[in-house]
Amino acid sequence: MPLTDKLRRLAARTLPVAPLRAQLDAPLASISFDDIPASAARAGAPILEAAGVRGTFYICGSHQDRSFEGRPQFARTDIEALHAAGHEIACHTFSHPHVPALDAAGIDDEIARNAAYVADITGKARMESFAYPYGDLSPASARHCASRFASCRDVVAGVNAGTFDMGRLKSLGLETRKNARAEVARWIEAAVNARGWLILFTHDVDPDASAHGCTPQELADTIADIQAAGIEIVTVAEGARRVRAAANC
After folding, report:
1. Which residues sit opposite 73 in a β-bridge?
2. Whole-angstrom distance, CA of residue 199 vs CA of residue 234
3. Pairing label, strands 162-165, 19-22
4. Which CATH superfamily is domain 18-247 in?
5. Peptide bond into 121 cis (omega under 30)
6. Residue closest to 167 by CA, chosen among 13, 7, 9, 5
7. pLDDT for 236-248, tens place per residue?
8. What residues contact residue 226 under an 8 Å CB cut-off, 6+ apart?
9. Within 10 Å of residue 165's Cβ, how many Cβ atoms?
10. Does residue 180 register a pLDDT over 90?
């Protein structure tokens, strides 16, 4: 990676974007899915629903009926079903670009095209939550995205507590290749101790999971462990509302 890119990424993850000081009354957790592969909708969502919770699905409208990184992506009917079941449909741009490569107008175009795609399906004119494709951001692009959404999610591991940077919320990858159940358990404990907000993300949900996905059993075990710790699971949009309410107390 060129030195300029390394410095950009360091600055983006060092400088605050949209910080809020807040103390939640109790810990929270959110389960999210990026892109989204068909298996996230067809296998992942039912696992959440069986546990009585709902997730956040960060979608790219251009992925409909396509394959991305070797995995079949969602169909329109998947988004219809997710919305009908009460899951949050969130923004991951329309075409999954490297956001720092775009100027403000380019970012706005990606957001607008994705919003139009989602509105045509759900009737909702606005999405509240955003996740950076590839976890790639710059200080300028992060500030711009934070001005457009209630929250923007990064891929840097951590629990959000004390100071919540709503422009680059920390999250934990629920991926078969890393963060085994014992490691996730440590982050769950950290969320309880800090009364913080733990956001997890994955991609596909498949017995033969990709490097960026998890198995159905791993997802079910994670949800069970979170609930056993007494943590409420909410959508990212609801989590952001709770943080803002706590900040205004």
Report:
1. 37
2. 10
3. antiparallel
4. Glycoside hydrolase/deacetylase (3.20.20.370)
5. no
6. 13
7. 999 999 999 999 8
8. 29, 188, 198, 233
9. 20
10. no
Token look-up 């803002």 returns: 244
Residues 111, 96: Cα–Cα separation, whole Å: 11
> Any idea where the domains of the chain sit in the sequence?
18-247
Q: What pLDDT score does 9 carry?
A: 63
Q: Between 139-146 and 3-12, two packed helices, what is the crossing angle to 10 degrees?
A: 40
Place of tokens 């079949």: 72
Helix (H, G, I), strand (E, B) or coil at 31: strand
Give the residue carrying structure tokens 């390394």.
6
Q: Which two tokens stand for residue 12?
A: 């983006």
Q: Answer whether 36's CB lies under 8 Å from 74's CB.
A: yes
Which pLDDT score, from 0 to 100, does residue 7 have? 57
Structure token pair of residue 52 = 């009585």
Q: Is the dihedral of CA 222, 232, 159, 211 positive or negative?
A: positive
Residue where the block lists tokens 């999954």: 96
Cβ neighbours of residue 74 closer than 8 Å, sequence gap 6 or more:
36, 37, 38, 40, 41, 59, 63, 64
From the centroid of its chain, how far is CA 37? 14
Alpha-carbon 244 to chain mean position: 18
Amino acid at residue number 177: R
